């Protein structure tokens, strides 16, 4: 989702803080696929 929302940022600044944090959260939620992480992720934002 994040990559589709900000493709330009990913290309120009792959090391951007926001991109890294968002990407890490998405990867964790996808890999572990835990309902707790999904709730925490949505609650955080």
Structural write-up:
With 45 residues, the protein is mainly alpha-helical. The model has no long low-confidence stretch (mean pLDDT 61). It has one domain. The protein contains four helices and no strands. The two termini are 14 Å apart.
Give the helix proportion (percent range): over 70%
Coarse shape: flat
- Report the sheet with the most strands, covering strand number, pairing sense and barrel closure: none
- What is the number of E strands? 0
- Which stretches of 5+ consecutive residues score pLDDT under 50? none
Q: State the helix count.
A: 4
- Proportion in β-strands: under 5%
Count of the separate structural domains: 1
Characteristics of this structure?
45 residues; mainly alpha; flat
Q: In short, what is this structure?
A:
This protein is mainly α and 45 residues long. 80% of the residues lie in helices and 0% in strands.
